[in-house]
Structure formats: structure tokens, C-alpha cells
Amino acid sequence: MNIHEYQGKEILKSFGVSIQEGIVASTPEQAVEAAKDLQAQTGTGWWVVKAQIHAGGRGKGGGVKLAKSLEEVKEKAEEILGMTLVTHQTGPEGKVVHKVLIAQDVYYPGETDTSEFYMSVLLNRQTGRNIIMYSTEGGMDIEEVADKTPELIFKEEVEPGIGLQAFQARKIAFNLGLSGKAFKEMTKFVTALYNAYVGTDSSMFEINPVLKTSDNLILAVDSKVNLDDNALFRHKDYEAMRDLNEEDPAETEASKSNLNFVKLDGNVGCMVNGAGLAMATMDIIKLSGGEPANFLDVGGGANAETVEAGLKIILNDPNVKAILINIFGGIVRCDRVAQGVVEAYKKIGEINIPIIVRLQGTNAEGGKKIIDESGLKVFSAITLKEASDLVQEIMA
Questions:
Q1: Which phi and psi (to 5°) does residue 75 adopt?
Q2: In what residue span(s) does the ATP-citrate synthase/succinyl-CoA ligase C-terminal domain sit (predicted)?
């Protein structure tokens, strides 16, 4: 689950990570009041108005602006709130900005002795260890740094059973070229950041940039946090941070029915039980001349309700020209899935696109018979080749 920058900073601060202070606002008037409060708290005379969307590259898209007076705070907030912000991570459709973060200006006027670093914590799935990635080239797209100057990206792996050791935090500060107070502040920053990553059961923490100020403080100026959905039952307060405005409506609807759904750009909808089977099904669709319109895994307990919910979500996509339901009957019986398809079809009403149901496993023959005798516009298949041929015939 992705969260906003201001929410990520709240979490970081609770674990002792030093941050660029800020207050979130939803209107220009709230933005001005936030700026006043922030000035009283921190003494800042300039403010940064930052669009809050689940995407990077906001500055390049015009979603981050410096304000040097309260009048400018209101003016910049008016410009950003309600705009459709397009970045390299939003796609061409962009995202509408509903909130702005009014942050203190930590780049002190006239001071030049500052440095920006990149830092992230995530899981290295190849080694099964957590890894801290960091670079002296902060404030830039890390993909660009990796492509042009990979030698400037450092990696420090951490054994989960042991945790981050003090010598590793010192090594990171040393590789970033720090000394004195800044060196000590960075070691504390790295340790607190790693503790936040582990303590929140996150999939990723990314800070770009991490700022060394002219007075040698180390601050998180940005934060991109992805929380592990599977661990949210342990963090109800974090689950409440979910912003449905930032999510695809179809994916939100799917989550209500405990369906694993990802929208794609193709023309053949697919519904399966199992992530591996889903990948194979998308391959079948590609080989048959179509393009998968989604990834939809109904899990091992597929029934009439989940099938109906899945079909409704797929049918809401106007680009879908056919649907392939590919079920392996292990835990679930194929005849029950087939009956669920028939019941869902009747409940939904008129469906104007063909549905191919491929059943294999427990009671597959019985499931095929139910489909064939239903009288509905549903085609049955037992083998992958039969399903592939039907998709190819329909897409021709």
C-alpha cells in the first residue's frame, strides 16, 4: 500500500528520523494557516508547497514550488490544488492533486555548503536479505544514475536475523564522504531509517533527497513509502492512511472482494485461481494474438460470489473484447466454478462479449458439461490448446 509523502514523514519521525517539517492542507486558506503554524514552530520564513500524489517526479511536473511569502503560499497552493499532475510515474493521464504539503525551507538562503544523497531500504529477493541502497547523487532519478554512473550507487546488505550493525551505518556515512558532526548525524539517520523500515513491515522506504544542511544536520526532505499489505493487520493505524483517490477504482473494488487485481492495457480479460496460472494465462493470450487486459487471481476458494465480482470488474473495462476464465480444480471443484460462472452470468444480465472457460482438475468433465448445457454465450475448454484456439478464433 502506497502512502503520501506527509504520511511517510510522520512514520519516519515516530522512529526518530529527522525530517523536513511540514503540515498538510486541502485548500489555499488551510495552506496559509499551515504556513503560519510552521513559521511559529520552526522559524522558517520561506515555504515549499508540494503536491501530494502517489508518484515521483512531482517537481519536474510543476508540483513543487517555493513560496517566499504568505501571499505566495496561497498563490502556489491555488495553482497546484486541483491540477492534473503528469509525471514519468503517473503516465500521460496524470493524477489530480487533492492535498498539498506546506514544508519548511531547509535550503537556507545564501548557504551553499549543502549536499543531497539518495537512500532506500528494501528486500533483495535474490539473497533474502534487506538492502540499503544509497548514492551521493541525490535529487536525481536513481534509474538515470544507475544507467550512466552505476559506480556511484552503493549497497549494504543486512541480515534480517541480526539487524543493522553500527559498523555498517558508519560505512554508509563514510562512503557518502561525510565527517565530523555530519558523519555522526548520518549514522543515527541510517539506523533510525532501518528501524522504521523493519518496524512498519514495509516493502520499501525511499528518501530522495536526504539533505545535509549547511549546519551539518541530516534530514529526510522527501519520502516514498510502500507498506506491505499482508502485514496491515498488525498496523491498523497505517491501514487508515490508505487514500482511495490515488488508486485505480477497479483495483479498489477488487480488494473489497479479496481479489488480486491489476489493470493492464489489453483487450482480453482473464480470471484464474493462482498467480502462476495467471502468468501462464497471460502468455496464452499473447500467443493467441490478443493482449491481456488484466491480472485477476480469485484464489483457491473460487465460488459464485467471487466469480460474479470478478466478471463485473472485467466487464467495466470498455477495451475488453473477450474473457478467458482459466481454473485448475485442486482445492476448488471445477463443477462448482462452472455453476458459479452460469449463476454470475445470469445475475449480471446481458453480456455482449464471448467468455471462454477452461477447466482442468477435479470434476473438470462435469464442469464442462454444465457450461455446454447452460445455453449461454460461454465456450468451454479442457486443455490449454483448446482455450488458446478459441481465443485466437474470437480475436481473428
A1: -60, -45
A2: 271-386
